[in-house]
Design a protein that fits this description.
It contains five helices and nine strands, in the order βαββββαβαββαβα. It has 249 residues and is of the alpha+beta class. The protein has one domain. Helix 2 packs across helix 5. The longest helix has 36 residues.
Length: 249
Amino acid sequence: MSSSFGALCSDFYVNQRLALKMDLPTGRETVLDLFDRIRRGRPRMDQFRRYDGELALESNPQDGAYEWMALRRTSIRSGCVNPEQLSHAYDLHALILEVAPYYLSISPLDVDYLELMFGFDLEAKGNHDEIVFDALIADGPLGELFDPETCIPLDVAPYFTFALDPERRLQATIEVKTRTSEREIEDDKFDDEAISVYLGLRYRGSLRNINDLKPLFMNMTMAAERLSHEKVIPLLIQPITRAINLRSC
């Protein structure tokens, strides 16, 4: 698992999406040639699977770590779960951005957006919404909106999007996802699911050259790491983790 981020959560993953404006080719030879090329670069990715509307190349999980890529009608997605190092995940995504355009005839004009996401799963027992409320809201101005004697937090899932450049082409999204249902609250029985914290970066717009995808992706990784260290970890992950630990004492 990533030495810096993986130690903070139960699961850490790095996902990527290249969204396109036109449909991808779906010919048997084209897809298999692409997957075979990826497999040569990532030998563990040797499982070819079909899902509803999706063709995927995956590795078998080993100690909670695995990687995958998937083709949908207008997108190429990939992910690396619990990588030993961030560079291991980056290498997978960079390889796909380097070779997929040539196998799938992707033009720079065809690019809708490139997206990078860091995902942090935090194991949490009990009411997720109460945990996030206590960690992020209760002691701030928004906490004054709620009467602690009469209000029960429901659907406490902060979500923010902001631009990182004056042209607003590079945007960051930060989301906290809780998974507690009203039925669980009513029954006072909670599933052992994770609270997820997502940091997503999205670059919108076509490119001048398809070879710009890889350096663009690497610039996005630097921005994602900076935001993680300066904002996401100290302001979201650490307070939520403390709230989880307090409830388990």
